[in-house]
User: Fold these one by one.
Assistant:
Number 1:
Amino acid sequence: MKVPIKQYYNLLSTYLRSQWRWVAVLAVLILITIGLRLANPQILRTFIDTATEGGERSILIRSALLFFGIALLTQALSVAATYVGETVAWTATNALRLDLLDHALHLDATFHKDHTPGQMIERIDGDVATLSNFFSRFTIDIVGNGFLVAGILALLFREDWRIGLPILAFAIVTLILLIWIRKLAVPYWTKYRKLSAEFFGFLGEHISGREDIRANGAVGHVMRRFYEFVQKMFPVRLRSSLGGYSMWMANVGLFAFGHAVAFGVGATLWRASLITIGTVYLVFHYTELLRGPISEIRTQITDLQRAEAGIRRIRELMNTESRLDDEGTAHLPTGPLGVRFDGVGFAYEAARVSSAVDQEDADASEEDNDHEPEMVPALHAIDFDLAPGTVLGLLGRTGSGKTTLARLLVRLYDPQTGAVRVGGQSVGTVQIADLRRAVRKVPQEVQLFRATIRDNVRLFDPSIDDERVLDALEHLGIREWVLGLPDGLDTMLAADGGGLSAGQGQLIALGRAFLADPGLVILDEASSRLDPATETLLEIAVDRLLENRTAIVIAHRLSTVERADQILILDDGRIAEFGQRHELVADPSSRLSRLLQAGLEEVLV
Amino acid sequence: MRMWRALWRLIKYRPWLYAADVAAWVAILLTELGAGYIAKLFFDSLTDASPAGLTIWSIVALVIAGGIARILTVLAGALIDIRHRYNMGSLMRRNLLASVLARPGAESLGRSTGETLNTIRDDAQAIEDTISWLIDQIALLVYAAVALVILIAIDARITAIVVLPLLTVIAAARLVGKHIHRFREASRRATERVTGAIGEAMEGVQTIQLAGAEKHVLGHVRELNKERLHATVRDRLLSQSLHSFFWNTVTLSTGLILLAAADSLSSGGFSVGDFAVFVIYVGVLAEVVAEIGDFMMHFKQGGVSMERMADLTRDETASAVVVHAPIHMSGPLPDVVAPRRTADDRLEELRAENLTYRWPENGNGGVNGNGRFALRDISFAIERGEFVVITGRIGSGKTTLLRALLGLLTPDGGTVRWNGMPIADPAAFFVPPRCAYTPQVPQLFSDTLESNIRMGIDVSPEALEESIRLAVMEDDVPQLQKGMQTLIGAKGVKLSGGQRQRAAAARMFIRDPELLVFDDLSSALDIETENLLWERTFARGDQTYLVVSHRRPALERADRILLMVDGKIEGIGTLDELLTEHEEMRRLWA
């Protein structure tokens, strides 16, 4: 079997290196405890031999008192070891959690589409929690208990090699068998954790969607899916739990065998008068004492099974790479940025196939092409050019590709063909961080966090002080509103981002964009859910934001495009029309004019 | 005592399984005692203190037979316990989910989804452990009683000396119990904040990425992580100190045996076999006390978990957590019962009288909170076949009105009447076939498009197709990779915003309700699509609509418009009437 030592070692050294002093302290504490445990049976033998041979009473009393002393010392040491061990473990696993979160935050949209937040909580927190014990005690316990076993065997050999040898054989057989059994359960643990992540993903999603579920009378449907999970999970849970029990059963059987060996050897040697009755007891007691370390090793191995499944899934997550390479080094200039699309083509499902592994899958599935529907392209051969400082109104039916076009600009995806250029640079050659600083998209659905208004506007950036936050709010005309709240900027938003209406949330999103001071703004229906009265208020703010900036405004209502210098109409992923707004309006044969005449004159004054 | 009552209720859910579980664990522990007694027989046969006349080799054979018996009992115990635990865990999780879904849908749970999941995952797990460990305790008591009887039979005086320190342990656990409760609670809260923050970061990953705020969000989580570390280490340190204190009594007791047995061992009144069985059985007794002490700690911590689950179900007695319900571990799953339409369901008139709603005052209401009126004395009526639009500026209470009307929020006053009859439980009443509703930002689920639209409704493929057509989605479906069978991703993210809204509309249409309620359905649709959608739905006739909108296609079609200002109805009338009478309407229209 393969023990992935290298993986463990890598994890251990990465996350424990910075705490090596504490790890050393922990090791010392545990080693001393082991020494104390080896001393116990020796005291008992002296006691029995002294008592049965009618020895001095003072020796008996001293032996008993020594026992108390050891007990108290063990107590103190184990508390100290707990403190050090837990601190080390939590420091290490917290660092791992942050690394995983960091990694997940940098994965592209394709990954996040396939993973619910509930699933991700399970993978970032749940999987790591199973590693907690691994970090604090695993190595030290395995090594420490190894020492304890070695110490017991050495002391037995010191008595007589005829005692030491059979017990040594017993210990070796036991360890080999226990380690062999270990691997039986791992696949079931992996499967169980995966299924369990799916299950909690399902629960999380349906808890967030309970308004929809209630009001559409779909509670029965959701419960039925819950029961499906109940049925599906039980066999997997049964097998993975039995894996843990199988270790216990093996342990029980092996120790019955061990006792049989100790009894046989002890009795034979005692009959031959080679050892005292106290020594027979010592042999029995040490054999019994082996149960401790071996059972601890067993426990550690059970934890390891869990940890290994966790490690495997953690590595899986860590090895998932964003399909957007971030190797660009170019920087974007400050000030308004020009935009240029050169023959850009893009399809969502094709974007999925990119890593080597996926490629194999794609090849395999090509063989049964009948079942695979054709790729659905979202954009074809898009060509247009936007001078710095101009405002583009982007129009088109739902699904015509407007949102996709915007996503390419901020590199949520990369196009399959052609190039997207911002500020003269192909977006692929610009560092993603730099690109997203300079190009800011105000999304359709605003994500709010359970944090203060301040942190929601500045997105936790501690370098942005209140003055700058308030400045941004002033621009939006909601400074007074925020300061009028019970705790001003300190007002906490409720758990599910609640407490703010959808429109108020959008004001926050605009505040975020103000703070970033981008050279290109993409407004994705930023005002779609605002009533006209508030929209009037916002228009001033949006005008300020667009001042001296390039902008792409995505809207379904023509009225919001009034401020556009140029108009681009998309139809089914192709450019249906592109030109100066006033020219298109003046030309009765233009698509824009036709749109206006289709009973929608009201939308433009 | 609430905890005991809840546990008792859980035990009664699968009483025979529970009894079998207890019996199996008693058997396991008794075979363990047997092994200890064999050790006594061994030493006694060496020192000729045993009258039984057993040979060494028959004792060795006995040891091995005992081992095999233990393996078999452990296997039986495992199979029973895993099944029993699974039953308990699934029942609690079922009840928690059912109770969350039974709550008014728009009412805040008072915690994030991540935190709620944490309760469903970890707190149910903690009680599952408690139940299973309670079985161990029963078995351990039997085990201890048998061991004690054997010890007393050997030497009552020494037995008495040993038992006393064990009793002090129980007293100690009682004293420390309070702190454990507090520390555990703090540690759980800190954990929740971390998982909550991770969940939010994942939900808002695009926002974070596009704002380049990854680093800052990590910083935020790092702070929460630190708090969690302190809280958890404190909790674990206390538990572990108590734990090792319990275990230490084993060694202390062995020391006591040494002192007490010194004289009788010398005089021969106490054999080496007796000594061996004493050390082993005192270990057993100490283990039992330690385990029971551990259990008492876990029990207190379990109490916290039970409280949190009870809190989630809003039922202090926790009876909603442990109520008996089928969990369908095997056999056919329950059919999703299609609601049957009765004559009473036919809508003639829907009337709201003095509907009032205040933001909750618990501080969790956030920026809008603190008891402010969200709706004040709203009264209106809708007749069968009408198209009624609610309009008003942002924050005027449009969405809140829909939610309070439909029971998705619990109104603070007022009556809602269906055909003149007051509705006692609007949340249960306003469901298909009477009513269906699409919120402002509809939620879809990680499943196929078809399953998202049907959500358990069993109708013909033609009806499904018709609902797709009404929602103006017939051109979109073939464009999707697998048509209706396309997996649409978490929250439906693989669809565009407009497709999500129309899928949610199709989800309503397929239910064919009397009253259709849309909250700003068209916000992600373009004008052409919106017009087409209204045209198609009106062509069906005979349905009643209540719609929040401020867009012209809806306002122009409205039979009546409710104009809302600051949680009150400013005016009711046709578009023309309102435009002439109300400045506010003119502003909205402009």
Number 2:
Amino acid sequence: MHAARDSRITAGVIALAAIALLIGGAFAGLAVEGAQDLSGAAAAFDSYLLRVARFTLWQAALSTLLSVAPALLVARALSRHPAFPGRGLILQLFTVPLALPAIVAALGILALYGRAGCFAGAFARLGAGEWPGIYGLSGILVAHVFFNLPLATRLFLEALGTVPADQWRLASQLGMGARPAFRLIEWPVLRAALPGIAGLVFMLCITSFTIVLTLGGGPAATTLEVAIYQALRFDLDPARAVVLTLLQIALTFIVVVALTRLGANTVGDANLPVAPRRYLSAGRLETVLNAGLIALALLFVAGPMAATLLSGLEADLGRLAGEEAVRRATLTSAGLAFLAALLSVTLSLALIGARRALALRGRPGNTMSLLEHAADTGAGFVLVVPPIVLGAGWFLALRHVTDVFAVAPVMVVTVNAVMAMPFAIRAIRPAYDAASERHERLCLALGIAGWNRLSLIDWPSLRRPLATGFAFAMALSLGDLGVIALFGSDSVQTLPYLLLARMGSYRTADAAGLALLLGLVCLMLVVAADRLGREGKR
Amino acid sequence: MTTTIKGTATQKRLTVALDDVSFSYGESSFRFNVEFQAGRITAIMGPSGSGKSTLLNLIAGFETPDTGKVLIGGTDIGDTPPSARPVSMVFQENNLFAHLSVAANVGLGRSPSLKLSDADRIAVAEALARVGLAGKEQRLPRELSGGERQRVALARVLLRDRPVLLLDEPFASLGPALRGDMLDLVAGIHAERKMTVLFVTHQPEDARRIGQDVAFLDEGMIAATGPADDFFDRSGPDAFRRYIGDRGGTVAGSQHIARKQT
């Protein structure tokens, strides 16, 4: 294709440069800090560090096991009963944790299982002594399973959806029972999907920050990310922060490489699989077992959501809404999330366009150029470098130059924007490529390029997917407690930051009210994103 | 069919030539050395993969030759972007932007930013009337039939008024009667404008209906060219006759085949 002077490639290069600057700046900060204090860095390698690293891996491994194994069974149960009452609703409910900010879920779990939660009350009434509470490893595991069981279930269900209907027809014709059908039809598909799904969950648990911060409850249950945060915010120990950060990067890098080897989808899909017609009917015993399984999973996932809702409604919402700090945090959150989403979608679009333009220029058989590779996977770097790590690098770099707390808005917007890119790209790229497939030659022939092309051709056909990406990025950014935990201060507070502060000062009712507000807004955004995406697929 | 459009029929007739053009795409490679006469309709025929669409894409500028020159009216247009070449092309599908009205799709032929003057709007309406779509300006492409959509594309061709028209099987998915109508429309436009028309088709009757010349492609090369009448009588090239499945009548045919096998 004739694309020698394609402005899309320029835009893509600029976007890549911006991402490289963000990541490179963080690394430069780390490198300079580490070089200045080599002995300090070496001294930071102590037993505490090893314990933290070990705990990080241990909790991630346990969380993965506890999420993935039940998910496999639940997905199979759901796929066996395509006409089960409320099945669609359950699947909808299983998408909610994806939308829920981690801090909101953490509060819901505390409201349910915490020392002052519903369970504690029931426990005391039964005279069984004092409820032990949930801080520590158990809290972390419950929260991780709450997030990842539904995710893994949906991914397994998607895998099961790929079994061709003909195979099911054949199985029923051959009179296969539940066990041979599982062994011969379902298990091969599930086994193929297993490493990818387990890897994704492991990755998410290794980089989980908010959950560990809010539910870990102390130095005994600390992961690398939380330790970085503590080294910077409380211990003011940059040397330790550098070592912790490098360790975290090495760890995530290894996991991501392993994941890519396994062919895993490192973003996780929000799509609901459509229930295919099934031809095998389940026996009575199996039906009862499946119903029990699904009910348990449902209770586990719905419980913290219900607790969030109920304890949120108990809070004095009227007073909260009138509070100056709450209003300011809401405005700050909305503004920053809006900007982050805008930036995220713009960068994503630039990368997508550049990738497409480069793909058109190349011919089949040619290997991809370095630039094309970068445009293709540029957003993936963010997965290797978690937000806390980016934040920590810049925190270290900027503290010599300026007041780190003054740059909070810039850091929050840029890091959240880049963090949301993998999701935005997933929402936009298929639509962009399909539109380009239809329009590319026509635009060339008629000389529609640059701004004309963007406003007349691309914008109308990409409006919906762009809105989907935008809403999703905004929800992610609104609920994020990563960068803001490092850079937040009394002058720049977002809702999650305020929530954390209220939790820290034991104003639990306030926190519950804020969590309800934040959770609802994020949920609405993700529902909107989903709707827009779906209608766009007509 | 007798409406004329203002400011037309002023163009000069241009030859289209490929001078030792080579091009490779994946596994396949092509080599074209050919000149199409100015102001005539040439049917481009040949088996799948013989390079018919590639030939048109090279002329339109969607593909760049590895070596050799593409000349239109004797001028090398190798460095000219597709939109600046004196060429209009109609594809098999996706000729219209689905979100733009019929009028806007045609109007893009006048201004790629859709900034249209009143005169432009009148020209759009006239072009649409010429192709039989008067009054359908505000429709969206999805509200039109397949044939009507290609008529919109032809209306845009009228508006762009370029001396070369390339048709890449635009009517292949239409039924025989409708295809005949569309070909007649092309022939009618050609009679008014005398542009150089190259049209790819698999149907011998299409080539016979409006083709003045035929170029036959085989294995990435121009295998034969000549007046359409010569191609369709017994003296046509063998490969071409095999391609269209012409056994040349019963007796002559069997002799012909027998001779070929020895």
